[in-house]
Design goal:
- The chain is an alpha+beta fold and 180 residues long.
- It folds into two domains: 8-68, Alpha-Beta Plaits (2-Layer Sandwich), CATH 3.30.70.260; 78-179, Hyaluronidase domain-like (Orthogonal Bundle).
- 51% of the residues lie in helices and 14% in strands.
- The chain is built from eight helices and four strands.
- A four-stranded antiparallel sheet has the order 2-3-1-4.
- α3 runs antiparallel to α4 and α4 packs antiparallel against α5.
- The longest helix has 21 residues, at 110-130.
- The protein starts with 7 loop residues before the first strand and ends with a helix.
- The mean pLDDT is 91.
């Protein structure tokens, strides 16, 4: 479903989420909900028209932590992006980490751009698992891992397991000197 991109995007992390809750939230006004499953709960990404209704929406979803999604990272330095992305990876917030890294991808060219592309692929593999697409996630991981293995040194490869797994939790901050 396409929706108005000018609507504010939100994200929340309820412990429990089912079709009934999503339908109630739709009735209440959320648009284009995307559900991702974490190890300890769910991630609900959506657009919403009426910020004044956030309190009521939090009751429906069973979470008090509904946050606006920031989409502009152009003001952040490379190290800040890598640090934020690492924190999100540790919390299984892979989609947001992917969005952050796209900013670095846009800024770079050549080998640096390729490195970021392959790291994004590793993160996308985790998003695919969260959306119950294990086979796709495994293929994306294996392709990205193989590319990294061909082009990068041992330091980067030590960050990642050779075999596909979920959840992956690794630090991107070691890439700071390479990408600066």
């Amino acid at each position: 479903m396409n929706c108005d991109p000018s609507l504010t995007r939100y994200i929340c992390f309820p412990k429990f989420l089912d079709d009934e809750k999503i339908q109630k939230a739709r009735f209440f006004g959320i648009i284009n909900p995307i559900v991702r499953k974490h190890s300890e709960g769910y991630e609900l990404d959506f657009r919403f028209q009426d910020e004044s209704g956030i309190t009521e929406l939090s009751v429906i979803l069973g979470t008090t932590n509904i946050n606006r999604v920031e989409d502009d990272f152009s003001h952040l330095r490379t190290g800040e992006i890598l640090s934020k992305a690492t924190a999100m990876i540790k919390e299984e917030r892979y989609w947001e980490s992917h969005n952050l890294l796209e900013e670095l991808w846009k800024r770079n060219t050549g080998a640096k751009k390729k490195l970021i592309h392959d790291i994004i692929g590793i993160i996308v593999s985790q998003v695919k698992v969260q959306m119950d697409q294990w086979d796709v996630g495994k293929r994306v991981y294996e392709r990205s891992y193989s590319q990294l293995n061909l082009t990068q040194g041992d330091a980067i490869m030590r960050l990642l397991p050779q075999n596909f797994a979920y959840p992956l939790k690794f630090s991107l901050e070691t890439l700071d000197p390479i990408l600066e």
